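Researcher: Here's the sequence for the chain we discussed earlier.
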Amino acid sequence: MAFLLQRAGYRPVAHADQADVIIVNTCGFIADARRESLETLQSLAANLREDQRLIAAGCWAQRDPERLMAWVPELDGVLGTRSWVAMPELLAQIKARRQRLVFTETRTMALPESVGAPGYAISGRSAFLKIADGCSRRCAFCAIPLIKGDMVSRPIEAIVKDAQRLRDKRVLEFNLIAQDSTTYGRDLGYTNGLAELLERLVAVLPESSWLRILYMFPGQITPRLIEVMATYPQVLPYVDLPLQHAHPDVLRRMNRPSDMQELRRTLAELRARLPHLCLRTTLIAGFPGETEAEFQTLLDFVQEQRFDRLGVFTYSHEEGTLAARYEDDVPEAVKEARFDALMTLQQGISLERNREQVGRVLPVLLEGTDENLTVGRSYRDAPEIDGLVLIQRRVAKVDRMALVKITQALEYDLIGELVDETEEVAPSST
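Model: Thanks. This is the structure I predict for it:
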């Protein structure tokens, strides 16, 4: 959307009070995200100037535009996930007609290359590179297919071209994103699409680059994918594998893969083939019907596997999903208690895993500094998700790679000392 708006003559500004048009890209995935979207819209609406326009875009705008417009009557327009290419048209019509407009009709998924736009977003030396959108799975709790529709993969050639553009812009970290990365390319006829894509990307990226895969799916990590990850230094030993639960009965109710022995074999193979693997997962506490015994199985699994990173959501009914037909029979107080139990357990595990990093020398992407502190991220830290590496002094130059010796561990962050200021540092250094 930013690319299309700039091509239409708009320019970005730093603060909302400087803008002629304010666009809030909403999330409709879970209740907490919708609440945050609504609070943001209402806060902006309360301070709108007469000449400013406020637009709601994204997933919640696609899913429930009428409710959004009722709750935020100051909205000038609503734009859904499959109509994002119409943003300049929407603004032009609002300017001409000065009336509220809704663009949320279901269209064929518009990929960036269909309108000459890049499929990436850059922040410093890091970028998110979209490889697919939508999801063809039907997990019982998830509304994403209702909002975005089935998975549509971008052509490999388009993704590689974007990667080359990012490389030429001196981007160092490439975060591959999709709702289900491990199924990339299946709709294009590939059987090992993600592995093939990675091989094409490493051929055009320097060895000092970081390639991070986000949002894998259980049962879809193939031997070839593991081999590719183990072979090329650009592909980080970082696996983001949202599991949601560990009890087979709960997983079946979730309409998720439930073969825990197969999962354990996959995790063991990943750890065997990828030294210093960082493993992240996400879990749901309080899914309908979750018994104390089923929850204990989940706790035991977390203790057994010792994930490096772990996030937890408490279950909430999502309108239109299969699970919304179930009785939401786990009391909110129990959900919160189980959330706390999981996070307390993980906090101790996270500290242990971080302490294992003390003494290692890690390439760190330096991202910010002030008089007393420099912050960056290692391969173990996905942007805006995981922890940080802290250097307790000002570093003259950031937005680059540097070698850092880890000297201290906190529950979620690491503290280290700069030992090398070389800009081109291979990500596999240890």
